[in-house]
Design the sequence.
């Protein structure tokens, strides 16, 4: 067991217990400095080693090609919604930026880009179906041939919609794909070479909140336009040129992310964690399917997320908030925490990130069956 409770939080989320124990053991004296890692200069040789190893381990874990830079930035994934506009639209306000909208986070990315004055083209949008994974066939997507980039969110954390695979072949030649992978990075294999930029806030599958990982193809580092003056702390080129140490980075978050990468490598890398994640999701989707409509996941099967499972509890053909509250309360009493759905969609949401043990998902499935037996 990695945690004393089974923590289903959507983020900040459960961390591997062995990682927390390692951090605890080094907390008061990191690398014989006599200080914690939080108390030493980001320019010290000890921290530079942390920074370098964290980058190298992520590169190894995700097979990041040599022509890609890995950056550790701040401001969360939300700041990246702006950073992609500041950094990646060489034609300025007259060049379109394409967005695929499949949930709340891609909607927010669109709103941010529009707010900054970017010429946004929405390639497709599932809002009318309540972002339930009814993604139209690619033949109906409306790409701009001259887009600066195509942006999409690989896993929509609130709606529980995950691309089984992004249709890279449909993207017009030469247009880089930019991906918000905040809630499923490192959860399954990924061919980084198909992307222009991948970014992810750390607080779900990587480490503590505070650091945002950006993986960027080198030729995209110099695509700024004077139409979008870029704040220095969001400038990919400056960040890359300074190995993410232009200004003070979130040192503790980088250190802890580095421990997570080492842990993932030690347990067998992406192959091992993928099998673990698939199994956890199967167990819960199975419990939903076998409940004869008592539990219902609104997402189309092909787009169901392995990381975030939203579902409702039905009584007399209607979602029952009363039963959902009771479910969350009783689950908590059994040490299964943070199952309440996102405030914008209600219901229940179980988040099954890398560090959640299989036992957690099995325990929740068993509880679901028992609860349905009493209340269906
Ligand atoms: C897919 C996705 N993108 C963006 C964000 C926003 O991240 P942050 O709060 O780090 O800015 C979240 C947060 O949950 C998310 O799940």
Sequence:
């Amino acid at each position: 067991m990695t945690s004393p409770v089974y923590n289903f939080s959507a983020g900040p989320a459960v961390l591997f217990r062995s990682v927390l124990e390692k951090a605890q053991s080094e907390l008061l004296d990191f690398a014989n400095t006599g200080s914690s890692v939080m108390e030493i200069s980001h320019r010290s040789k000890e921290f530079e080693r942390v920074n370098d190893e964290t980058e190298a381990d992520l590169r190894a874990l995700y097979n990041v090609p040599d022509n890609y830079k890995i950056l550790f930035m701040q401001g969360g994934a939300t700041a990246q919604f702006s950073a992609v506009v500041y950094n990646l639209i060489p034609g300025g306000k007259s060049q379109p930026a394409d967005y695929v909208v499949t949930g709340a986070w891609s909607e927010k990315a669109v709103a941010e880009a529009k707010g900054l004055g970017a010429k946004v083209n929405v390639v497709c949008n599932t809002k009318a179906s309540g972002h339930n994974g009814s993604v139209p066939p690619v033949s109906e997507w409306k790409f701009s041939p001259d887009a600066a980039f195509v942006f999409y969110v690989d896993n929509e954390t609130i709606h529980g919609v995950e691309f089984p695979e992004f249709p890279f072949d449909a993207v017009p030649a030469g247009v880089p794909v930019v991906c918000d992978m905040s809630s499923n990075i490192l959860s399954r294999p990924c061919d980084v070479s198909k992307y222009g930029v991948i970014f992810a806030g750390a607080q779900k599958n990587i480490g503590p909140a505070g650091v945002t990982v950006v993986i960027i193809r080198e030729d995209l580092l110099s695509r700024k336009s004077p139409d979008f003056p870029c704040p220095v702390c969001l400038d990919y080129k400056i960040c890359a040129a300074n190995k993410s140490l232009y200004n003070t980075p979130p040192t503790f978050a980088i250190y802890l992310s580095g421990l997570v990468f080492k842990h993932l490598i030690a347990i067998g890398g992406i192959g091992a964690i993928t099998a673990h994640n698939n199994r956890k999701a199967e167990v819960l989707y199975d419990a939903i399917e076998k409940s004869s409509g008592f539990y219902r996941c609104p997402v189309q099967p092909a787009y169901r997320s392995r990381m975030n499972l939203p579902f409702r509890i039905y009584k007399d053909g209607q979602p029952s908030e009363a039963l959902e509250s009771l479910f969350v309360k009783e689950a908590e009493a059994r040490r299964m925490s943070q199952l309440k759905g996102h405030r914008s969609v209600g219901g229940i949401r179980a988040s099954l990130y890398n560090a959640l043990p299989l036992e957690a998902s099995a325990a929740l499935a068993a509880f679901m069956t028992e609860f349905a037996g009493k209340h269906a």
